[in-house]
Write a structure and sequence with these properties.
- The protein has a domain at about 10-40.
- About 75% of the residues lie in helices and about 0% in strands.
- It is mostly helical.
- The termini are far apart.
Amino acid sequence: MKKRKIFRTPEERAAWVARGEELQRELQYWIERGKAELAARQEPASSP
């Protein structure tokens, strides 16, 4: 069973949510970057 995060103030919760959103944006950036690098590597190999 997962422990629930308990916040003392609404500001503490807002900061926690903002950090989570920032981490999601950063993760998405790295995923997109990795996909772009893979696509760039495959381009020259597929062209005759």
